Amino acid sequence: MDYPNDQAPGAPVRAGIPEHGRVPKYYAVKTQLAALLDDLGEGGLLPTERDLSERYEVARETVRQALRELLLEGRVRRAGRGTVVAGPKLAQPLALASYTEGVRRQGLRPGRTLICLDRFPCPQGLADEAGLERGEPVWHLERVLLADDERVGLESTYVAVARVPRLDTDFDPDSSFYGYLRDRLGISFGDADERLETVLATPREALLIGTPPALPMLLIHRVSRDTEGRPLERVRSLYRGDRFSFTTHLGQPLGTDDKN
């Protein structure tokens, strides 16, 4: 398929140029840098800011602004004192599947680092949202998500102690929680409600994930139930916006036709 103005699928319309045709200097440099990234390939080291400012005949601050946008978009990443071309984003499906399964499908090694596993009486807000009873004991499992040992997210899971009474002794924190429920306890997921939004990480979250606080994050809230419709878990998953994208398959809603 041919695309107008040599645009690839998903690229900004007219390469992001305003209708009045006046292009900010930093954006022109960003466009040139994008072409340079394609030439260098994944892992390629970019020239220094000084070299780039001389090459494109602009101020170093203009180069910095272009690099900042490429960094936020996940096109480049910091490596020591330099900047290198980043690899493709991880495409995680919006489905009732574990993080482990999604990462493995892309040929990467999933992992997790345990931050905390504690229990407390369920507060009213969590009870209302997850269909639990106020005051009943719940586990809070917090883990940093890894892909090939790179920190890419932070996950907090809340589940009733009555459903998983030996979570603190029988569960390996570096493994899949979904796999533990399925293989050790015989619990299967039935359905879930999920909400996705963009946020900035708190200072604590940014420190745990190892990102600048200004880096946009993708936040997913999920409330899951088992095959009998009973509440199972409430999860808050925070993913790096420069390393993740999410995919889903959409079908035609029941009761509609294709006439409109």
UniProtKB/TrEMBL annotation:
Pfam families registered for this protein in UniProt: GntR (PF00392), UTRA (PF07702)
Keyword Secreted applies: no
Protein origin, superkingdom: Bacteria
HTH gntR-type domain: residues covered: 23-88
InterPro entries for the chain: Bact_HTH_transcr_reg, Chorismate_lyase_/UTRA_dom_sf, Tscrpt_reg_HTH_GntR, UTRA, WH-like_DNA-bd_sf, WH_DNA-bd_sf
Upper taxonomic lineage: Bacteria, Bacillati, Actinomycetota, Actinomycetes, Kitasatosporales
Keywords: DNA-binding, Transcription, Transcription regulation
Name of the protein in question: GntR family transcriptional regulator
